[in-house]
Amino acid sequence: MRARFAFSPDAAGRVFDRAQATLVWLAVLVFLSSEPAVRGLAVAAMLAVALAATAVALLAEPAASTPSQAAPPPAAEPGD
User: What is the pLDDT of residues 65-74, one digit of tens each?
Assistant: First the structure.
């Protein structure tokens, strides 16, 4: 059964990459800010980004698995 609103695996990957970068910058803001209100707002934004990434993970279509092809055995060297 497919979800009504589904993200492609590529789109979900882009969301996760951007969410990770956003979380890093918000964490830097939390540590560098001396204002408690800014820290609280940054932590709330981090929570919102994490929840959004979780929602995308739940709505993402599974990636198509490609069967791994075994590598052919190496050719025998003459004289071996």
Answer: 666 666 666 7
Q: How far apart are CA 30 and CA 37, in angstroms?
A: 10
- CA distances (Å), origin 80, targets 35, 52, 72, 74, 75: 73, 59, 18, 12, 11
13: containing domain: 9-59
User: What pLDDT band is residue 42 in, cutting at 50, 70 and 90?
Assistant: very high
Radius of gyration of the chain (CA): 22
Average pLDDT over the chain reads 83
71 located within any domain? no
Total tally of structural domains belonging to the chain: 1
Residue with tokens 């990459």: 17
Residue 64 sits at the vertex; the CA angle it makes with 15 and 57, to the nearest 5 degrees, is 30
Task: Compute the distance between CA of residue 21 and CA of residue 3 in angstroms, rounded to an integer.
Answer: 27
